[in-house]
Amino acid sequence: MKASTFRRLLNLWPPFLVNAIRLQSLSDDWSEAKVVLRLRRRNRNYVGSQFGGNLFAMVDPFWMLLAMHRLGPDYYVWDQAGMIDFVAPGREDVYAHFHLDDATLDELRQAAAGGGKVLRWFENEITTASGEVIARVRKQIYVRLKPKARQL
């Protein structure tokens, strides 16, 4: 599927649509994604700031999706674990940026070449438009070369 088509479909996915999460951009080569969580009346918590579950939801699938599409069909790629540290209340729209570079892909390919599982942590921040850090997120993905692609 083309990245532009995927972006449009993901923005219509009910968990994102209902919670005002939007994939703003997705590069054609799946190396970069930018996401926004708009602060709306329906997604505020009791004290009026961004609901923590939505902050995590806005970043949850992206490291896995970028790795899956960049590594290709010869690899299993799954989410393994996730952590979020709330730094400050989000009282406005917040943003997350993901960039999966070629060097990291090469590391994953080399580590998975023998057929064993690879667990890799990725980190990024959720910020306001002015750059204030609202949360720090860590996601761990699982990568493994599929049996049919392993060299004997």
UniProtKB/TrEMBL annotation:
<protein>
    <submittedName>
        <fullName>DUF4442 domain-containing protein</fullName>
    </submittedName>
</protein>
<dbReference type="Pfam" id="PF14539">
    <property type="entry name" value="DUF4442"/>
</dbReference>
<dbReference type="InterPro" id="IPR027961">
    <property type="entry name" value="DUF4442"/>
</dbReference>
<dbReference type="InterPro" id="IPR029069">
    <property type="entry name" value="HotDog_dom_sf"/>
</dbReference>
